[in-house]
Amino acid sequence: MLARLLWIALAVLIILLCIVGFPVGFRNFKALCIGTGCDGPQLTAEQLRVFNAHGLSSDFYAAYSMSFELLFVVVWFLVAAVVFWRKSRERLAWFVSLTLLTFGATFPDFLGVLANQQRVWWWPVNVVAFLGVGTLVLCFFLFPDGHFVPRWTRLLALVWVLWNVYSVS
């Protein structure tokens, strides 16, 4: 029961983060990248001129990009919810649904932008990111029967989790 409540609490947190982070991500996509190192999702001034020459605006680019990021989150969330709804009594199925829930929320960049621009969200975003990355790798170690095979992969899993704790802090 506690595990199910944890999953539901994380799902609510992720929905809240997405609601708060979506406008921040939209503004980030809409803003121009100025200076060096512009290889991310933001457009450069030259790329914006090309977009404008084709009749497209930075609003269109931001809406188009955010729609794909939102689609990614929604699909992973729905698959996680179905697995949780149908099989949450089985430990590995619950863990897989937790992995889908948290990793699906961390892969799009708008939550990272939210954490960087509004520091109050740094801790919740990084907890979800830690769980997303950590559980994804552990899921590969535990699938299909919930056991570490071979047994020495437990050490690799422990090193992975410790590395992620160090990376987040």
Give your account of this protein's structure.
The chain is an all-alpha fold and 169 residues long. 76% of the residues lie in helices and 0% in strands. The protein has 7 helices and no strands. The chain has helices at residues 2-30, 45-53, 58-87, 91-106, 110-117, 122-142, 153-168. α1 packs across α5, α3 runs antiparallel to α4 (91-106) and α5 runs antiparallel to α6. The longest helix has 30 residues, at 58-87. It starts with a helix and ends with a helix. The model has no long low-confidence stretch (mean pLDDT 89).
Low-confidence stretches: none
Taking all Cα atoms into account, the compactness measure Rg is: 19 Å
Helix tally? 7
Mean pLDDT: 89
**What class would the helix/strand composition place it in?**
mainly alpha
Number of strands: 0
Distance between the termini: 30 Å
Principal-axis shape equals elongated
Helix content: over 70%
Order of helices and strands: HHHHHHH
Largest sheet: none
Percent of sequence in beta strands: under 5%
